[in-house]
């Protein structure tokens, strides 16, 4: 099995590294010429194989994508004329595994286009931080044909600890979008609680202890508040604010398909889009707290 991995960013590169350790016939590529060149120069001594161009991945049996969104996935497969597009040069019955945070609607359309070419698509987005990507302990959702997923399970298990089959193709991307919305809503509520606690002159460390011992507990209260947001926190939890805004855009965009618009999702989406416009491009998702302080003209965070 020849494997191509496209997208060697913060999350993609450690995933590619773990995959390469267990499956030597893996070759990686990143669309940024600067990053791709740097990786070619620095990783060969570690036994990692980095392509010089996208077409070095031709004849691959499996292509794994870890890109910003579904449109980028389609572009890397179909860009170029009928003789240069990667999709025309893959092995017969090739399998595409999209591990990006893509729109499920884009995924369903891509799966149909690939099927017309005799190829298959699995949507397999991940949940977890950069350290979990490095440790190979990500949670991976997998949507698609059961037998197809079974055939690539060793690849998924090289990158993740928990593999959850979600149903038909597109279902994993749908669940990932909704998961990230629920996380973002929890982080937003936790940030507001800290602000109210500060206004009431409460001990914020104790407030977090109360939340984590009570019904207000969520991932944000357990892994973000004390670790990255209180007492001069570093606000570096490992996931970009702009990426969260993008994922909320995917979730919010499902309203057309669903036929209704959830009000809290709309509020969360709009706040994150506003934050995206005002915060630096490198801002971490935990900096939604700093954005709210500025928006509400509150004193600097505790």
Summed up, what is this model?
With 302 residues, this protein is α/β, with parallel strands linked by helices. It has helices at 12-22, 33-43, 70-78, 104-115, 130-135, 146-151, 153-159, 171-199, 204-212, 219-223, 225-229, 241-253, 255-258, 263-278, 288-296, and strands at 3-6, 26-29, 62-65, 95-98, 120-123, 126-127, 138-143, 160-167.
Structural features, described:
- The chain is an alpha/beta fold and 302 residues long.
- The chain has 15 helices and 8 strands.
- The strands form 2 sheets. Strands 2-1-3-4-5 form a 5-stranded parallel beta sheet, sandwiched between helices. A 3-stranded mixed beta sheet has the order 6-7-8.
- Helix 4 links the parallel strand 4 (95-98) and strand 5.
- Helix 1 (12-22) crosses helix 7 (153-159), helix 8 (171-199) crosses helix 12 and helix 8 (171-199) packs across helix 14.
- The radius of gyration is 21 Å and the shape is globular.
- The relative contact order is 0.10.
Labels describing this entry:
12% strand; 302 residues; N-(1-d-carboxylethyl)-l-norvaline Dehydrogenase, domain 2; three-stranded mixed sheet; Rossmann fold; alpha/beta
Topology:
Blueprint lengths: L2 E4 L5 H11 L3 E4 L3 H11 L18 E4 L4 H9 L16 E4 L5 H12 L4 E4 L2 E2 L2 H6 L2 E6 L2 H6 L1 H7 E8 L3 H29 L4 H9 L6 H5 L1 H5 L11 H13 L1 H4 L4 H16 L9 H9 L6
Parallel strand pairs: 1-2, 1-3, 3-4, 4-5, 7-8
Antiparallel strand pairs: 6-7
Helix pairs in contact: 1-7, 8-12, 8-14, 8-15, 12-14
């Amino acid at each position: 099995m020849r494997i191509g991995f496209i997208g060697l960013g913060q999350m993609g590169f450690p995933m590619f590294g773990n995959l390469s350790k267990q499956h030597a016939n893996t070759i990686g590529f990143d669309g940024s010429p600067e990053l791709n060149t740097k990786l070619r120069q620095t990783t060969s001594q570690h036994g990692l194989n980095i392509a010089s161009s996208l077409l070095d991945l031709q004849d691959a049996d499996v292509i794994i994508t870890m890109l910003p969104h579904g449109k980028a996935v389609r572009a890397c497969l179909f860009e170029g004329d009928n003789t240069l597009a990667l999709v025309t040069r893959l092995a017969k019955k090739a399998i595409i595994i999209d591990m990006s945070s893509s729109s499920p609607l884009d995924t369903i359309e891509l799966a149909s286009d690939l099927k017309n070419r005799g190829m298959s698509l699995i949507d397999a987005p991940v949940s977890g931080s950069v350290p979990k990507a490095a440790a190979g302990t990500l949670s991976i959702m997998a949507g698609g044909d059961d037998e197809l997923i079974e055939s690539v399970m060793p690849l998924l298990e090289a990158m993740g600890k928990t593999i959850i089959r979600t149903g038909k193709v597109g279902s994993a991307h749908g669940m990932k979008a909704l998961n990230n919305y629920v996380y973002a809503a929890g982080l937003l509520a936790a940030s507001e609680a800290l602000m109210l606690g500060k206004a009431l002159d409460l001990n914020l460390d104790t407030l977090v202890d109360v939340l984590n011992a009570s019904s207000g507990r969520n991932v944000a209260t357990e892994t973000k508040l004390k670790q990255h947001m209180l007492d001069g926190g570093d606000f570096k939890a490992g996931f970009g604010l702009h990426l969260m805004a993008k994922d909320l855009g995917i979730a919010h965009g499902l309203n057309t398909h669903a036929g209704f618009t959830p009000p809290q999702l709309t509020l969360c989406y709009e706040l994150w889009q506003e934050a995206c416009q005002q915060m630096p491009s490198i801002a971490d998702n935990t900096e939604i707290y700093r954005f709210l302080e500025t928006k509400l003209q509150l004193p600097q965070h505790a």
